[in-house]
Inter-alpha-trypsin inhibitor heavy chain H3-like (Mytilus galloprovincialis), 687 residues
Amino acid sequence: MTMRLFLISVFTVLIVLCSCDDAVVVPRVKIASMHVESKIHARMARVLVTTQMKNFANHSLETQFTFQLPDMAFISNFTMYVGDKSITAIVKEKKEANKIYEESKQQGVSAAKIDRQDDKPNREMKIFTVSVNVAAESKAIFKLQYHELLSRKFGYYKQRISFQPRQIVQDLVFRAKIFEQEGINRFHYTMPGSNITETSSNELTTVKASDNTRELYFKPAVDYQKARDISKGISGEVVLYYDVEHNNVGGIILQENEYFVHYLAPSGFPVLHKNIIFIIDISGSMQGLKIEQTRLAMLSILDQLHPGDYFNILLFDNNVKEWFSEPMLATLNNVNLAKMFVHDKVHARGSTDINSGLLRGISLLDITKSLGGTRGNIIVFLTDGRPTSGITNTKSIRQGVTTANKHKFSIFSLGFGFDVDMPFLKALSWENGGFARRVYEESDAARQLESFYKELENPTLIDVKIDYPNNAVELSSLTSTRFPQYFQGSELIIAGKINDHFQSQLDAHVQGQGSVTNLDTNINSTALKVGNVMESSIMEKLWAYMKINDLLKETALTDDDVMKRVLRNKTLELSLKYNFVTPLTSMVVSETLLPRKIAYEHGILNDPGVAPSRGRKIYYKSKAGRVFHSQSSNFAHQPYPRSDTQALSPDQHGVQKDSNGGSILQIRLPTVYCVILLLQFLSYFSR
């Protein structure tokens, strides 16, 4: 009996081994090297990730790896090197890109496709998936490039670079270089997995500095990577912070050929008193961590109100409850009373009447218009879900709120968690002079809410507008030139195209209302210094980047189907022209994109009519006439290969079909032999 069990165990192991191609476990695609390089010039960052991958298997392998980009970044290039040939990716509409990639997989050649995914990314990031098909027993080098316009918050520009190879990499390098014409006055950084702020070189990194530049170099040794994680190595982000000199109250206009970008961060203006109302969702879905963190954040935010601010708190579920019938001055006594209200009343219950909450909030702030003077006017709106009570159609809510508001107050929306309708909140805020952010349902949610308020805490100017001579610029090319408010520590950016016939120096008229003095000045353009940091035509790329973002906003805001198509086509045209991966496009690269004659000569593709040397199809007929189909497959399971059967789609009976509609059982022949042998063996012992 013991011998029988032993032999059965041996054959069980055998069948597991036989179920793998050539009786071995299929190796994963290995990253041989990864270099990440960031170059920043005029707030525009270009990040280049160069990865060399090796496939040791005797068939092509597909692997998928994800990477996270900042929410406002666009992928701008992807190049694949196979042998002595390079193939640069092309940006196509998603459907066409998918077709090219699938055809390349069928031919067993190296290919890659980049798509934006809807998975839950890290904060203020978006996820892209690179699907890479590496030909048998070969290596491929992939270069991924993306552009990001850095925004200024709390007096710093910030760049986050995901650094997660998910395996130990022998040759792993990060380098960054920043060049700013105005001069860099502050710089610090943090490394993956560390919260320690560094300003200069240490045992792991090398930093070089001059008046206009900062350079950083980081090459972690294998031992250091293993110390972080024995199998996955380093995982985290490199984060760079810096600021420039802001000496000119009218900002700086950088011009390169016929394109310009105007950066405006006025300093020296006193902080304005503000009228602010907090509209908080306390419906049943807010219960638990969300309502607790909201309560904690509000108690802290109330302490940060400035003397001279007027404020109010409005809570809504299926009913609306306000702290007072009018905004109150932020005296110590009133702040303490407001804290008591928050402590007693901010508890989850009921359904969600977003419309009534917003309309009542606007009517409450209307009362403050009688106060006079130049004041910031702010609505902070927080919700975690979708309207379920009162008016529930989001289009109707937006129309009603915008009509009632008449651009008097800026609405800044916070979406709590991932069940919230973020497109609705973004559109609502864009239409009313604000912006929307997501609050992540985690233990530091209260700190996230406080940080959001910090961005709005100190308005210094209202009704900021920038005008350029009509004969100097193409008016249709301009990005937004009107801003309801300017907040201390931020920056306003305008981009446009100069008319071909205009030969003079470009100038701008900048205006804004302050509490003591107004902003009213003229500013002339400055020629861009390219140096050796950035590629040429950076102003044109930056303009296209900003224009695409504006068009995407306009598309989200319009409810007219004809106008949506017009805006969509404009966005697609710019995306294709400047090779940007946007929500409308994908980027695909394949050896099949090479001219076929060149591909044959270099052994990348087989001659027409000749079966591929690897990955060829072999057909075997059973007694019943059914077809056993064996082929080397493309795998897509991160980071390990996908099973063969996933390449085929089942019919209504669950039987997988080939391209001719016949039933196919995709089974490896060694597995069939082992199964037959094992069955015979077990049959013998069962006698």
